[in-house]
Amino acid sequence: MSAIRSVRVEGLRLRVLEEAPSSESDEPVLLIHGLAGWAENWREVMPAISATGRRAIAVDLPGFGESARPRSARYFDVERPFYAPLVFSLLDELGVGRAHLVGHSFGGAVAYTAAVWRPDRVRSLTLIAPGGLGTDLDRSFRILTLPGMGLLARLRRSERLTREILYACFHDPSRCSAQLLAEAQRYGAPSVGEMVAVLRSTVSFRRGVRDEVRRPWIERRDRYQGPTLVVWGREDRILPVSHAEEARLLAPQAEVHVIPSCGHLVMAERPRELLGVLLPFFERAIPQGSSGSGSVLAEAASGHGLR
Fold first, then answer.
1. Where are the beta strands (DSSP E) in 67-183?
2. In terms of CATH architecture, what is 2-133+210-303?
C-alpha cells in the first residue's frame, strides 16, 4: 500500500512517500534522491522492494520536491553536519530503528555520511552513481556556483530546458516517462535555490568537489564497515563511471556493479536491472555485529551486472 505524508523533522516539514508491505519485516529501506530530485524518482523500484516484506521509504530532501527549505544549513560540515543527523531524526519520526540506506548521486553522499555518522543504525549501504567519490563534476553544475547564476537559472527555466536536463540523465531518453518529465517541470524551478546553495557549499567552479569537504569524510570511512553496494550506469554523462574505481576508498569490502546501456538516473532507466542487484544484496546483507547467513537469493547476484 502506497501513501504520501508530511512529517516534521528538526523543525522542517518533509514530504515522505511510502510503500508498505502487507507483512512487514524489520528491514525498512530509506531511499534518498539526487540533487534537484524528489521522492518519486524511486517509483519504479519501490513496489518490488515492498513485495519482499521491506517497508520502502522515499523522502523529498529539504528544499527539494515539496519539502521545506532549510535556513543556514551546514550541509556536509564534518563536525556539525546537516544531512547525517537529519536522516536518523527522520527514521525516529517514522518509528524506524535500523535501516538499509540507498542513495543516488548527491543522495549517495548523504547516505554515506549518515552511515559514517551512525553506523549502528545502518543495515546496509547502497550508493548509486554517488557524488563525492571523484572530484570532477560536469561543468553545467560547476557554473551554478558563480555569482548570479542561481537567479539566472531560475529566470531561464523553461519546459524545453527542463526536458533537456532530465534527458541528459538517461542513456536512452525514450525510457524517460511522461510522468517523470511532468514532475521535473513541477519541481525543477522551485528547487534551484537549494541546489545552488548545496553546490556552493561543496563545489568550486575550477576544482569541482572541494577536497576540504570530501577528504574529512573519506578519512572517517572506517567508522562504517557494514555491507556496501556501489551501482553505476555505464553511459553516465553526469558522473562518469570511472569514479566507481574510487569505491574502494570508501569501503574495501564494497561490491561494485556496472549496468550497461544506462545513464545517470539508474532507478528510472533500468529499474529491473537495478533490482536484480539490489534485492539479493539486501538478502545477504548482514550488519556489523550480526551473525548468520543470507538467503539463497544471494547466489543470484553473481549473474547481474559486472564486477
1. 99-104, 122-128
2. 3-Layer(aba) Sandwich (3.40)
**Distance from the Cα of residue 239 to its chain's centroid:** 13
Q: Is 95 left (phi over 0), alpha (psi -120 to 50) or beta?
A: left
Whether 46 contacts 2, CB under 8 Å = yes
Structure-derived torsion over alpha carbons of residues 86, 87, 92, 93, reported in degrees to the nearest 10: 70
Domain ranges of the chain: 2-133+210-303
How many residues make up the chain in this entry? 307
108 with 212: CB under 8 angstroms? no
Helix, strand and coil percent figures for the chain, each rounded to 5: 45, 15, 40
Q: Please report, as a single letter, which amino acid is at residue 283.
A: E
Tell me the per-residue pLDDT of 136-192, one tens digit each, with 9 for 90 and over. 777 777 777 777 665 555 545 678 888 998 999 999 999 999 999 999 999 988 888
What 8-state DSSP symbol labels residue 233? E
Residue 296: how many CA atoms within 13 Å on its side-chain side?
0
Is residue 258 within 8 Å of residue 234, measured between CB atoms?
A: yes
